[in-house]
Design goal:
homodimer; alpha/beta; Rossmann fold; two-stranded parallel ribbon; 39% helix; 16% strand
C-alpha cells in the first residue's frame, strides 16, 4: 500500500485499493514520467502492472524510471502506433491508463504527421483493440490543457471553448474525442483527465520537449541561468506528479467518472518569474533566471496565462492536490540532485 | 459569367469575378457533389480550374458531373492521401477549395482509420504542401455541422460547444482546426465554412453515404417509399448547392474571411416528416414515406434536431441563401429524372 503522506484521502482508501490489488493494469507510455510514477504506486499497492513504451529517444520513456522494479513490473517495449502489439496487450487487462503521447508542441509544428500518428491514429488503434478484444476494461486517457488554446477567461473550466493553437493540441483533442465517442457509441468505460503542467521525479529534464520546467531543473542544477521567454508574467498552475497519480487512480475506480471529462489543477498558481524565483530560493539563492525574448516559433503558439478550474473533479470525485508547490519542487530538486546522470547524460539515459 | 438568377448579389459581383477570372483554381473532391457544381460555376466565369478526385467508389466523385466540360476543366485523378500528388498540384494555384472528404458517419465508425487518413492525415499533407510550395494562395475548407454534435440550443451559432458524436465528426473537427492553426502559426490564408445539409444536382443518390436526402430522391423516383428513421420530428436545415457555391466563392475572395469560421444555413428549416411530405407534394402526390425504427448503429450517432444560426456570414460577408427549399427540391428532382442512369446505375456511373 502506498504511504498515507503522499496521497489524498480518496486515493488511499481501502475501497479504491480493493478494486486495484491483484488486478491487471496496462499503462501506455509507462516508462515515461507520469506512467512510471503511476506504475510504482500500483505495484506498491499489489496490482499486476504491464507498461508498454516505445522508448523513442525524443519522448519521455527512460528505463531508469522503473529499473529498481524489474521483478514487480512487466516492461513491454512496443510502439502504440503498432496495432498488432496493442491488440495483444490489451487482452485480459482490467485497467488501461492511456498515457502514451507525443508532447512537444514545437515538434508537432515541425513534424505534424508524426504527432498525428501517435496522438490520433494510435489512439484509434488502441480504442479499436479495446472494443474488439476487451470492451469492459476501464480506460483513463490523459488529455491536456493545451486543447483550450489561449484562455478566454480564468480559471478555465471544462466548458471553456476548445481552440488549440498548435497541431499537438488539435491531435490531443481528437484523441480525447475518440475516447468520448467510443464511450457513447460503443459503451467503452472511458474517462478523460485534462492535465495541466505536471512536474516531479522521473520527468524528462534533458531538454524542454516534455515541459519547459524540465529544462529549468536541469539548468538550475548545472549552474546555468533559467531562461524565461517574454516578460515572465504568464501565469501557470502546477501539479506534483503524485497528485496526478491520485487523480488517475480515482478516475479509474470511481464509476461516476465513466464518460466524463475533468480538469486537473492546483490552488497555488503563479507567474513564471515567481516560479523561477521560488526555485532559486529553494536552492538557497544558488542560481538565477533571465528574461529572454520569445523565439518566433514559440511566440506564435504561446497561450498566455492559464490556470484551471478543477472544482468538478473535487466536487464529484473528491480529488484534491495534496503536495504544495514548494514541497513538490523541493522533492523534485532532491531527486535530480541524486539521479541526474540518468536524466541528462545521454550515454547513461537508460543505464 | 454565371447567370444572375441563381446567385446572390455578392457572388455575382464584378469585384468578385475580377478576382477569379483567368485565375488558377484547384478543387479537391472536384468530381464530387459540391466540387463539381463549384467547378462548373468557376469555369463559366473564366477561371482556370483543376479538379483533383480519387473516384473512390464509396465517395461522391462521378465523372458524369463534369463530362460535358472536358475542354474547360482539367481533371486530375489522384488521392489526397498521396502527399506527392498534392505537393505538385498546389503549386502555382491562386485558390484552393479543399472539399475532399470521407462523409459517411456510419463508415467512420466501421472503419475509423480510413476516415482518419482522409479527413486528418491528408488535410495535414495538403496544408504542409501549401506552406512549403504556395504559402500565399487562398484556401477555403468545407467543414460540417457534425462537429457540434447534439445541439445544446437552437439555432446553433459558431460559438456552440464542439462535441462530435462520431469518428467522422472528430476527424472533420481536427481538419478544421489544422486549417485554423496553419493560418495563425504559418500565416496561410485559410477560411472554414461549416456546411449543413446540402442538396441539389450531382449529389450521390445511389445510397445514403453522402446524405440521407440522396437516397430519398432515388427512392421517390423509383416509386419506393421514403424511409424516415424515428418519429420524423427531427428538424434540419438545407442549402441548395448553388447557394453553397456562392458562399465558397465569397469566402475565397473576401479578405475579411481569412482565419474565420462561418456557419452556412437556411431560413426554411423543417422536420424530416414535413420534408418528405413536401417531396411527395412536388411529385404531384406520387410517392409516400414511412416512419421506421432507428437502426441501433444510427440511433447512437444521431444528433436530434439541428438548424444553424448563419447571421455571421450574412452580416460580415453578405451571403444569403437565394434558392427556396421548394424551388431547390423541384430542380433537383428534375435533374435526377433526366440523369438518373448516371447516378444510380452502377455500370453507368461514370459513363
Amino acid at each position: 500500500m502506498p504511504s498515507a503522506g503522499s496521497t489524498s484521502a480518496n486515493a488511499d482508501s481501502p475501497d479504491l485499493w480493493a478494486q486495484l490489488t491483484s488486478k491487471r493494469v496496462l499503462i501506455t507510455g509507462g516508462l515515461g514520467f507520469i506512467g512510471s510514477n503511476l506504475a510504482r504506486r500500483l505495484a506498491a499497492g499489489g496490482a499486476r502492472v504491464t507498461v508498454v513504451d516505445s522508448l523513442v529517444p525524443e519522448y519521455g520513456g527512460n528505463m531508469f524510471n522503473l529499473a529498481d522494479l524489474e521483478a514487480e513490473v512487466r516492461v513491454n517495449i512496443a510502439d502504440v502506433r503498432d496495432p498488432h502489439s496493442v491488440s495483444h496487450l490489451v487482452r485480459g487487462q482490467d485497467f488501461l491508463f492511456n498515457l502514451a503521447g507525443q508532447t512537444c508542441h514545437l515538434d508537432s509544428m515541425r513534424d505534424p504527421h508524426t504527432d498525428l500518428e501517435i496522438n490520433c491514429r494510435a489512439q484509434l488503434s488502441i480504442l479499436e483493440a479495446c472494443r474488439k478484444f476487451n470492451p469492459t476494461l476501464k480506460i483513463v486517457f490523459s488529455s491536456t490543457r493545451q486543447i483550450y488554446g489561449a484562455p478566454r477567461y480564468l480559471p478555465v473550466d471544462e466548458a471553456h471553448a476548445l481552440a488549440p493553437v498548435d497541431v499537438n493540441g488539435v491531435n490531443k483533442l481528437a484523441g480525447e474525442n475518440y475516447h468520448l465517442v467510443y464511450h457513447r457509441v460503443h459503451g467503452l468505460r472511458t474517462c478523460v483527465l485534462r492535465l495541466t503542467n505536471t512536474y516531479g521525479p522521473r520527468m524528462r529534464v534533458k531538454d524542454d520537449r516534455q515541459t519547459f520546467l524540465g529544462i529549468w531543473f536541469r539548468r538550475l542544477l548545472e549552474g546555468e541561468p533559467i531562461l524565461i521567454f517574454g516578460d515572465g508574467a504568464q501565469i501557470r498552475d502546477f501539479n506534483y506528479v503524485d497528485d496526478v497519480v491520485d487523480a488517475l487512480l480515482i478516475a479509474a475506480t470511481d464509476e461516476r467518472a465513466v464518460g466524463e471529462v475533468f480538469n486537473l489543477g492546483a490552488p497555488d498558481f503563479l507567474s513564471l518569474k515567481e516560479l523561477a524565483a521560488l526555485l532559486v530560493e529553494l536552492r538557497d539563492g544558488q542560481g538565477e533566471y533571465r528574461l529572454v525574448p520569445f523565439p518566433g516559433e514559440r511566440r506564435r503558439i504561446d497561450i498566455g496565462s492559464y490556470y484551471a478550474d478543477y472544482r468538478r473533479i473535487s466536487e464529484r470525485l473528491g480529488w484534491q492536490p495534496r503536495v504544495s508547490l514548494r514541497e513538490g519542487l523541493a522533492r523534485t530538486l532532491d531527486f535530480y540532485s541524486q539521479h541526474q546522470k540518468h536524466y541528462w547524460n545521454d550515454d547513461a539515459a537508460d543505464a
